[in-house]
């Protein structure tokens, strides 16, 4: 049944053959003020980032319209076990607005590129959101009381004439309906010439870094007018440019260590203790290319679109166009694990190049125990790989295939020859429907999948 803000819940069980999953309960969210039909949506409604907070109680999404929508998990209700910990809209606010750089005659989109939560220190929540140029620190807090009984102001907030004040009153707090307020506490701007592609909060919780195509800057969360440049790969002559930075992330425990990936398929591990400007990396992770697989598209598909440390900080996961790889920090020459996401697209690279899909930037995530990897694909498919059993499964996030209480079966793609009834031909894949952004609950088997303007949340289902 329809919920608030045009949301619709779908209850589906997923019988996955992976030991860390049982059955799943998905439901769909749409940002407020969007058209309900999934086939009719504006560009501003497309979800551009998804992120759980450190406890998993909140889930934030950003879209191309510059909005941030936060969902909060309900407390479990013993009387309604089928609604176990569902997520509902908690707060919605406009984070960024479109701007225009008059000096460069450049339009700056309001699209939210990344959202990162800060650990909760008090009753309020804090998160960082960024578009191409500006990072903002937001405070999200609740208010259920209002002050009354001002001396210098009347009840409507107007300043009173001091001559009319004949007595002093003690202000009191009166109960009111719960209100969730989002206020910008810091605005970090004017530090990036190129588009910001990633932000990462340091484990000291005092600093964070922002990375664009050619530079990485280090910020203090309390200082907005100054940042430190820690990586600069811009050549003196831009015609000599051979690679750009695609993603960057801090080590989860060592505040001096971070990694960044490049469009050439390399990952560099840097130590900020070695020098103020990390021009020289500590380690370089790169897999030699197989000459037999060399093609016109090799450099494009080897570009890394996402890099993530696992929770212990021992391994790094990277996503390029066709594969997900896991690297051991102690072994630089090749990954210890390689998973084929959609190898059946290798024969379609020419058409994917023509429609620009080959430049899509897919993200990847770990589950809470680092035993399963999830990443997206086309046709609203997303893939899961169990690192222990080496099993994998392809699932589809789609309203059309998700009837109430129905069974959502794993999907298979047929490359050639005879196609079975439950398979889909690679020629029938819809490349306009793509899962670029996913998130995994930090401790439970709950996942969030963004499919264009729909947000699917899958969680374990109670029997």
UniProtKB/TrEMBL annotation:
Protein name per its UniProtKB record: Serine/threonine-protein phosphatase 2A 55 kDa regulatory subunit B
Family statement: Belongs to the phosphatase 2A regulatory subunit B family.
PROSITE patterns: PR55_1, PR55_2
KW Cytoplasm (keyword) present: yes
Classification via PANTHER family: PROTEIN PHOSPHATASE PP2A REGULATORY SUBUNIT B
Compartments where located: Cytoplasm
Keyword Repeat: yes
A Pfam family hit: WD40
Entry GO CC: cytosol; protein phosphatase type 2A complex
Keywords, ordered alphabetically: Cytoplasm, Repeat, WD repeat
Cited InterPro entries: PP2A_PR55, PP2A_PR55_CS, WD40/YVTN_repeat-like_dom_sf, WD40_repeat_dom_sf, WD40_rpt
GO terms for MF: protein phosphatase regulator activity
Gene name per UniProt: ppp2r2b.L
Highest rank taxon of the organism: Eukaryota
Transmembrane segments: none
């Amino acid at each position: 049944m329809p919920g608030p803000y045009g949301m619709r819940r779908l209850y589906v069980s997923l019988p996955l053959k992976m030991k860390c999953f049982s059955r799943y309960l998905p439901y769909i969210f749409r940002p407020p003020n969007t058209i309900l039909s999934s086939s009719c949506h504006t560009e501003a409604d497309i979800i551009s980032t998804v992120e759980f907070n450190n406890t998993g109680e909140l889930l934030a999404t950003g879209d191309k319209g510059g909005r941030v929508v936060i969902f909060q998990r309900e407390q479990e209700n013993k009387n309604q076990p089928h609604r176990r910990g569902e997520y509902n809209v908690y707060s919605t606010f406009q984070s960024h607005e479109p701007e225009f750089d008059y000096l460069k005659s450049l339009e700056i989109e309001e699209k939210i590129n990344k959202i990162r939560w800060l650990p909760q220190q008090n009753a309020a929540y804090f998160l960082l959101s960024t578009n191409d140029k500006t990072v903002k620190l937001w405070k999200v807090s609740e208010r259920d009381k209002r002050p009354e009984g001002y001396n210098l102001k009347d009840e409507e907030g107007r300043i009173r004439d001091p001559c009319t004040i004949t007595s002093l009153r003690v202000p009191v707090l009166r109960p009111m309906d719960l209100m969730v307020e989002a206020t910008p506490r810091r605005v970090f701007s004017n530090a990036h010439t190129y588009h910001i592609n990633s932000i990462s909060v340091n484990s000291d919780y005092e600093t964070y870094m922002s990375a664009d195509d050619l530079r990485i800057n280090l910020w203090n969360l309390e200082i907005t007018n100054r940042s430190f440049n820690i990586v600069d790969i811009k050549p003196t002559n831009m015609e000599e440019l051979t690679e750009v930075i695609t993603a960057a992330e801090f080590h989860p425990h060592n505040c001096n260590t971070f990694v960044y990936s490049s469009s050439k398929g390399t990952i560099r591990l840097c130590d900020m203790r070695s020098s103020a400007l990390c021009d020289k990396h500590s380690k370089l992770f790169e897999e030699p290319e197989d000459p037999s697989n060399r093609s016109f598209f090799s450099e494009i598909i080897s570009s890394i679109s996402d890099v993530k440390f696992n929770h212990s900080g021992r391994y790094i996961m990277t996503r390029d166009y066709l594969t997900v790889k896991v690297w051991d920090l102690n072994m630089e020459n090749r990954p210890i694990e390689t998973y084929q996401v959609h190898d059946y697209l290798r024969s379609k690279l020419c058409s994917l190049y023509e429609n620009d899909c080959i430049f899509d930037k897919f993200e990847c995530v770990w589950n809470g125990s680092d035993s399963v990897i999830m990443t997206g694909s086309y046709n609203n498919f997303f893939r899961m790989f169990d690192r222990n059993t080496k099993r994998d499964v392809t699932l589809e996030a789609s309203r059309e295939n998700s009837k109430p209480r129905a069974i959502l079966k794993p999907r298979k793609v047929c490359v050639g020859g005879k196609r079975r009834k439950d398979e889909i031909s690679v020629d029938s894949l819809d490349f306009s429907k793509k899962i670029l952004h996913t998130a995994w609950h930090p401790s439970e088997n709950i996942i969030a999948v963004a499919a264009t303007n729909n947000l699917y949340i899958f969680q374990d289902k109670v029997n």
